[in-house]
Amino acid sequence: MNKASNAKRRQLVVGNWKMNGNLHENADLLVKVVAGWQGEHNADVVICPPFPYLIHTGSLLSGSAILLGAQTTSEHSKGAYTGEVSASMLADLDCKFVIIGHNERRRLQGETDEQVARQFIAVQQAGLIPILCVGESLKDREQGRQLETIGRQLDAVFAHTGKDVFNNAVLAYEPVWAVGTGKTATPEQAEEVHRFMRAQLGELAGKVRILYGGSVKAHNAQQLFALPDIDGALLGGASLDADEFLAICRAAD
Ligand code: 13P
Fold first, then answer.
1. Is 96 annotated as a binding-site member?
2. How much is the pTM?
3. Domains of the chain and any CATH numbers
């Protein structure tokens, strides 16, 4: 697909499996996805399984064009942080991308904007690409404060990193009220936020990929991907079904 304003940005589809799967189901899903994504493509595809399945997933993806990612990481590089996983450990396992600041981590694990900023830095220091998630709550949206919330989440990271490092990062807009609810942002709602996020990037505005996430399915992907400031999708539920996932990847291709 050719978009006048983003002719140089490759579309990206990221599957965030969240805390789903087991060895048997994962193998079944990955064999089907790899078989359906052979050859050359104009879109990049990334799969982010739970930590324990990274090695198994990586081995089933090896030789394919599909890249491996992780769902979060520690802000620390090593040490006495029981249960944490560092970005360099993820690099060891051939991860290329790490999702950070997902709203489920912010809301359920209490991750703050500042922690997310430190995770962003840790991911880049390990040579990996952060996928920084931002998004407003339903309350923010109802009060018309979506851009204010997203601006604050972005500024918290910019304050620690500057903007230049976004040359090697991906942004994702995931409205909290659209995640796992079946309610997708309308094309107008999504495009408004993506345009705003792009404008915050200053000189890099035209270069950084900005994904949309929140109840993206095969039936609505094409319409979202056609928008000038949307460069792909961050998928939850749809990444657990090979046919659905591949249909979305093809829509981005
Ligand atoms: P759903 O696609 O299930 O709404 O989840 C989106 C998401 O949170 C991806 O990170």
1. no
2. 0.96
3. 3-252 (3.20.20.70)
